[in-house]
Specification:
119 residues; mainly alpha; 434 Repressor (Amino-terminal Domain); globular
């Protein structure tokens, strides 16, 4: 979980990179939701968040907390790192930024999910 908090601190201090990751997250959530055949309402319910908040995430207006990111990943039945993984045609800069974070985020979020499930 520490790695996810480091990510949020890093994003606050690196506005340009943080905005790029926020856009990437918003695009991936929408793409994966549509591929799963879910409405925003369905995914919001599965993720345990409000419909307006999911809409704001998909529009790139809001950045979710680590627990919310984990809920969205569970709702989409994907590993959390997939939400921040660039597609093959992504710019090299985004790919490099994301590659540095993907492993730590996936490990931290999956650890959190296991801890929550054990409660």
């Amino acid at each position: 979980m520490q790695c996810v908090f480091i990510l949020f601190y890093w994003m606050d201090k690196n506005t340009e990179n943080g905005e790029a990751l926020k856009v990437l997250l918003s695009q991936n959530v929408k793409r994966l939701r549509e591929a799963a055949g879910y409405s925003q309402e369905t995914l919001a319910e599965k993720a345990g968040i409000s419909l307006p908040f999911l809409g704001a995430i998909e529009r790139g207006e809001k950045w979710p907390r680590p627990s919310t990111l984990a809920g969205i990943a569970l709702g989409l039945d994907v590993n959390a790192y997939i939400l921040l993984k660039p597609e093959n045609n992504a710019s090299q800069g985004i790919t490099e930024i994301t590659a540095k974070l993907v492993f730590d985020i996936n490990t931290a979020v999956n650890h959190s999910i296991k801890a929550i499930s054990a409660i």
